[in-house]
Amino acid sequence: MSKLKLLVDECTNATLLSALRQMEPALDVIQVGDPGAPSRGTLDPDLLIAAEGLGRVLLTNDRSSMPSHLINHYSAGRHTAGVMLIRRGFSLTRYVQEILQYWSTTTADEWIDRTVYVP
After folding, report:
1. CATH number at residue 109
2. Which of 5, 50, 55 is nearest to 32 (CA)?
């Protein structure tokens, strides 16, 4: 049973990424543009394909277009390692707690083709 690995897209606040890394150094998390991650400017459909290939749950703030990209992704017969869509209006602490709770209580296998809103 493997732990979740995350890929954070570039439209997600960098403060959240820093807080996740600080609160749980064992969390395997990379951001678009990091070594081993897709390059900055990668379009959402390609980002979904990259996250799938890397076996990483995509953490995104893009609630407007990502759901339709997901529909197209699944319609093409593709899969995801999971997707977390960040809702607006909550504290940084709440986001970090929720994401780390998923990380500590679920396995990567439980996230295949799963999409959740955080929190």
Report:
1. 3.40.50
2. 50
pTM of the full structure: 0.96
Query: Would residue 7 be called left, alpha or beta, if left means φ above 0 and alpha means ψ between -120 and 50 degrees?
Result: beta
Closest CA to 82 of 46, 107, 57, 51: 57
Specify the pLDDT at position 1.
78
Average pLDDT score, the chain = 96
Overall domain count for the chain: 1
Predicted local distance difference test score (pLDDT) of residue 50: 98
Residue position matching structure tokens 């820093």: 18
Are 12 and 47 in contact by the 8 Å Cβ rule? The answer is no
Nearest to 12 by CA among 66, 78, 53: 66
Query: What is the radius of gyration, based on Cα positions, of the chain?
Result: 13
Q: Give residue 106's domain range.
A: 5-118
- Cα distance from N-terminal residue to C-terminal residue, the chain: 24
